[in-house]
Structures are given as structure tokens and as C-alpha cells.
Specification:
Blueprint lengths: L3 H22 L6 H21 L5 H24 L5 H19 L1
Helix pairs in contact: 1-2, 1-3, 3-4
Membrane topology: Multi-pass membrane protein
GO molecular function: amino-acid betaine transmembrane transporter activity; antiporter activity; choline transmembrane transporter activity
Organism: Helicobacter valdiviensis
């Protein structure tokens, strides 16, 4: 069954990932265009997250958004900025994913 509220959360998370990558590219806002882009993307992500709350519990929406953002930002940092996690970091991400699955089924 199609769920527009889930689509809002996924889109919000994708925007959050791009915002985080743009923030890294801004180099501490020294490259202000990337910094401004990151702020605008976060604003839009929060707007979409707000829309998702019309049909989804806050705890579920926020956890989905955050976990997708964590995984996507980690993968984006790996591919675009050569940022590597130690194995324990990947264990932590796996635990976050398990937490989302547990919360979604509650």
C-alpha cells in the first residue's frame, strides 16, 4: 500500500544527507555557497518531516529520518570525501538500523 507520509520521510532524509555533504563541502562555511545550500536543504527537510507527521507517529518518523540520514551521510562521506569508519562504527550503524526495525514494529 502506498504511503505518502513514508515518502515525505524518505525525501526529508535524502535532503538531509545532501545537506550534510554540502555542509562538509562548505569547509566550515569558508565556502559560503555550500553552507547556505546546506541550510536551505535542512529547512526543506524539516518541512517534509513536518508533513509526514500528519500520518505518522513522531517517534517513528524521526527515527526513520535520522537512521536514513546517518547511513546515507556515512556512505556519502565514504564515497565523496574518503572518510572511513572503523569496524565498530559499522556495528553502531547496524544497531541503529535494528532500533528502527524494532521501533517500527512496536
Amino acid at each position: 500500500m502506498f504511503n505518502i507520509y513514508l515518502v515525505y520521510v524518505i525525501l526529508a532524509a535524502l535532503l538531509d544527507i545532501v545537506a550534510n555533504l554540502a555542509l562538509n563541502k562548505s569547509n566550515g562555511f569558508r565556502n559560503y555557497k555550500w553552507g547556505i545550500l546546506s541550510i536551505l536543504l535542512v529547512w526543506l527537510a524539516f518541512y517534509l518531516l513536518t508533513l509526514s507527521l500528519e500520518g505518522m507517529k513522531l517517534a517513528v518518523a524521526y527515527t526513520l529520518w535520522g537512521s536514513i540520514g546517518i547511513l546515507g551521510t556515512t556512505l556519502g562521506g565514504y564515497y565523496f570525501f574518503n572518510q572511513r569508519l572503523k569496524p565498530i562504527g559499522w556495528v553502531g550503524i547496524f544497531v541503529v538500523i535494528l532500533a528502527v526495525i524494532t521501533l517500527k514494529s512496536a
